[in-house]
Amino acid sequence: MIGLQDITGTILQWLLDTSIQGSVLIAAVLLLRLWPGTKLPTVFRSGLWLLVLLRLSLPVLPESRLSVYNLVPDPQSTATLAPLTIPTYPVTAVAEPIVAESRSDAATEAAPGATTTTGARHKIDPLTTITLLWLVGTLIVGGRAARQAISIRRLISRCTPITDAAILAMLDRSRREMNVRRRVTISECPDLSIPSLCGLWQPRLLLPVEIDRHLTPGQLRMVILHELAHLKRHDIARNIWLTILRAIFWFNPLMWIIPGLMRADNEAACDERVLGRLQRRERVDYGHALLQIAGDRPATRLLPSGAAMADSRRQLQSRIRMIAGFRRPGLIRIGAGIGLLAVVMLTFLTKAEGVMTQTDKNPPVKAGQVVLLTDIDSLFYDVIREVRQNHQPRSWAYTEMVAMRAAGWSEIDYGTLMTVSGFGPSFGYHHNEKFWVHYVMPTGALDRIAHATGYGMELLRIDDVEEYWQTLKKSIDVGKPVHSCHFEEILLVGYREDGVRENRRVHPLALPIFVKPGTWWTWKEFETWFREESNGVLLRHTERVDPLPPAASAREVMASIVELALDDPRDKQQWAGDAVWGLNGLETYARDVADLSKAPGFFHSGWHGCHNIYPQLTARQHTGRWLEEKSALFDGRTGEYMRQAASEYRKAHQAWLEYGRQLGDGSPEDAWGNDNCRTAGAKAIFDAIEHERTAVDLVQKALSVS
Length: 706
Known about the structure:
Helix content is 50%, strand content 9%. It is elongated and about 110 Å long. The chain has helices spanning 4-34, 42-57, 126-157, 165-177, 217-232, 235-248, 258-275, 280-294, 316-324, 331-348, 376-388, 395-406, 414-421, 445-453, 465-477, 523-534, 550-566, 573-576, 582-594, 620-630, 636-663, 675-705; strands spanning 63-64, 92-94, 160-161, 185-189, 196-198, 204-208, 307-308, 351-352, 370-372, 428-430, 437-438, 455-461, 482-484, 490-496, 505-509, 521-522, 537-544, 579-581. It has 22 helices and 18 strands.
């Protein structure tokens, strides 16, 4: 299921990308309009605005080597939002090649933390906030247009149909002359000062009252021809189209500039169409008619969808000059206009070659280009939303949840995975100048997961980037994502391979703070990540294995709870240095928290980062729930000890929540510089440790009598 954050992110990304590229095209059109010596027929100048409307409306652009965006990085980078419909995820071969987005452009916004801690500050998703602001602006601008529509309908209701046989006959002759087949009604309006055309489905020509007294019959015919030219060119539909787009892109200043320019070019195009049907001596009368209509009459504001003959006095002078110097366009000018429109279409209404966007749906299949696990993007963010409802996500656990659910283990939940793997009790603390907190993959985690769930995994350490590349390809080819689990957890779910090493691309998934949704790494970026961050670690699903009997698996997990709480994981010492582990590490951490002399050091205001203890990351509530559930597998004292241990873990969790209120995400901004918060936070940790030591002792007793 696609969540609100995915939808808002998609909307904002499309709005931003389309607005930017639309602005580039608008700037190009403005330059072409102002270019000295431009002698294009006005119909082609008007056609340029039609291309602008088209660009602002298209969700998908075709690729072209001629695209102007080949000269700059394409701004579009988005996440696949395919809905989750099946429990296993197919491999899709995609024909479209990919332009990678630099990892340096990764989103800077951190993922929201858990909001379950009492007193925690509720964080508002910026994407949702911005989307709501955009929606409010759209409703305001759209409401303004709706009010104008209502006012024009009221104006029309006060109009009287014209019954003068001569004017009706003139309208019929003009329709045949302009080759207009649609029925057009004609009315006179007491509140109107200039002839106008309105009505998309039922076109209506509105004339000022007694206009025939101010114009000669020949001039009135020219006025009717002009308004019918608007109908022939579908200018009403264009104006409605522009009104809708202006409501959508109201935040773009250019959208408030182009309506007047577009209408001026539309009016000039209609003038040109009418002048082409007039004799030379009649063109003077056409100019006089325009002056007569626009002269001293007050301008009438019409609905944006309307088409008025004298829409703006500011354009009157240039229109008169055009009428005076009118020459029918020759083949060279027509050819130049067609060529210009074609060039603009090929360069501005196309995307850079090799770009895949979120709106490319169901691309054709071609082997040897892109292989992408199409549905895992959606599943990834679904899992994160699910976990965030009750927990501060531990990146290894939710990342592996995605891989497990993608493989068909839909029953797995976050709490069980945290407890079985041992990630909750696995805690290391550097008691030196760094003051780093470590949460690492505990010893035996993969075996315990396999024994409890039947989900087989293998952890590889590969020193050669080419070997790593070939391994991830083989895994993705059979529908299995690759999980890299060293510093920041990354899922690799797609690749491009066309035979050229430098053209290779990799599609990673991680929290937006680490990897921007929709990113495709270049080969150079992939090599850098492999060398500096992955440490060559690769975790992948192998096959379904036979799990242990539930009671045996539970004993194995309980043994790991005791071991991780009381012993140092020696296999981690190679990279974790002098870290102190388990409950001893927590006690050392608590003593440093309580030592107010360390306030000027690493403990400081803003100590809310990944090196602090998040109360939910300790996972004590998960351990307690798991022990309570598994106690039903055992009779007598074993089950009773497990239930007592579960109660102690729940008390420990409450103490951790108190720590969070003092020094965690729910604490004041200056908590780490506040003596009272530091003292209360340390006391909460010591309280939690006391309950945990009691719980571990009870788990040991349960194991001894089981």
